[in-house]
Amino acid sequence: MWAALLGFVFFMFDVSARSGSWEPLGQPYFDNSTKRETTAAVGQPAFLHCRVRNLADRSVSWIRKRDLHILTVGVHTYSSDARFAALHADGSDEWTLRISPAQPRDSGAYECQVSTEPKISLSFRLTVVVSKAEILSGPELFVRAGSDINLTCLTKHAPDPPSFIYWYRGDQVVNYAQRGGISVVTEQRTRTSRLLIARALPHDSGNYTCAPSSSESASVIVHVLSGEHPAAMQSSSSNPPRLDYLLTSSFFTIYSLNYDSRHRNWIATRE
Ligand SMILES: *[C@@H]1O[C@H](CO)[C@@H](O)[C@H](O)[C@H]1NC(C)=O
Ligand SMILES: *[C@@H]1O[C@H](CO)[C@@H](O)[C@H](O)[C@H]1NC(C)=O
Ligand SMILES: *[C@@H]1O[C@H](CO)[C@@H](O)[C@H](O)[C@H]1NC(C)=O
């Protein structure tokens, strides 16, 4: 009789397990629509977003694949490396791993794991890049006296627009106060910063450096030539001085110049 009852219980278990009827809410599953390839800049925070539906009372962990290190369980950090944190808002489906600040060695595979039996997991890939600025007309630019010096600096691989940009001539920050006709403009969409010096004179020659926050800087040697035009001269900046374009496009952000007395520097900040 007991054997028959036990058999019946096993039979019930088998049926239920197959139909899943013991799980009124259903099993947890991943929302696969979140991005699983992420690029972050070195020194900036990196975020991996894992979305789990029907989690109920299970927990979500983040694992580093390289060494199977458990980084976080629920909202708790298990790693001794305090750069790792799990972000989760009560009631949301999202469990985000934040690595701040990200380092190149953080590049690699990560896994978002749910404590079901058996476990389910979803893998993610993080690439931490060193952002390097680039000046388009570099490394050397020849400009006729009286025309514009027009320098375009790209902050390559920077996942976010730079929060500020220094422009130097030599080791001095470009001094907007001593001379009119200087402007710095940034285009948000392309993360481009442009230094424009109208009606350049020979003494505007020099080594110009674009130093964005969170990117390595880039430099260009500018020669402002009076009179003679060497064969190598590039005449891209031979248009008459023109500053009105600064005001014509909503894509542009005007930087204002402030004297940073603490570091004794001029800094350009976005308005
Ligand atoms: C979502 O990801 C899981 C785990 O990799 C996989 O088993 C499942 O088939 C995926 N679903 C869709 C709709 O891609
Ligand atoms: C400066 O150079 C950029 C790119 O070469 C160009 O798009 C822009 O129109 C130039 N600006 C002026 C004022 O010449
Ligand atoms: C220009 O200035 C930058 C930054 O100070 C420096 O690294 C670079 O060597 C200079 N280039 C030349 C040709 O002097």
UniProtKB/TrEMBL annotation:
One GO BP on record is: synapse organization
What keywords appear on the UniProt entry?
A: Signal
- Tell me the Pfam families matching this sequence: I-set (PF07679), ig (PF00047)
Keyword Cell membrane found: no
TM regions (residue ranges): none
* Residues spanning the signal sequence: 1-17
This protein's record includes keyword Signal:
yes
From what superkingdom does this record's organism come? Answer: Eukaryota
Per the record, its GO cellular-component terms are:
neuron projection membrane
State the InterPro entries in the record: Ig-like_dom, Ig_I-set, Ig_sub, Ig_sub2, Immunoglobulin_dom, Zig-8
The Ig-like domain extends over 28-115, 118-221
PANTHER family tied to this protein: DEFECTIVE PROBOSCIS EXTENSION RESPONSE 4-RELATED, DEFECTIVE PROBOSCIS EXTENSION RESPONSE DPR -RELATED
What is the protein's name according to its record?
(apollo) hypothetical protein
The lineage is: Eukaryota, Metazoa, Ecdysozoa, Arthropoda, Hexapoda
